[in-house]
Amino acid sequence: MKGKTICQLQIGDKASFQKTISESDVYLYAGVSGDFNPAHINESYSNGTFFKGRIVHGMLTAGLISAVLGTQLPGPGTVYLSQDLKFHAPVRFGDTIIAEVEVIELISEKNRVKLSTICKNQNEEVVLSGTAMVMPPK
Q: What class does CATH assign to 6-21+58-135?
């Protein structure tokens, strides 16, 4: 299986991935990443924070963008080169997040693709936005 090459991509191409974030997703991410910040895993602590409850790791949410890039657009064989991110709102346990990417620039001579990246929750609220640079498969 191979993703789209730069010649097969066009500005405006889009793809998305949707996932409902569970408590087990957060605990598994904490274990894999080593990020046991109590804002994510300790209910009594997190109730006393600005967020008034546990929130999902921002990078877990950002990882959904990676799922789109590596499996759909450009797809298998894509090398993720860079990502800038802005976190707009917290993601809560049970939120359904849709990660969307859109091709915004093709740099054919360097085999690079710049994509707009955005994650929204089930209420269409933007929780994360940014841009990614990838190298599609040859």
A: alpha beta
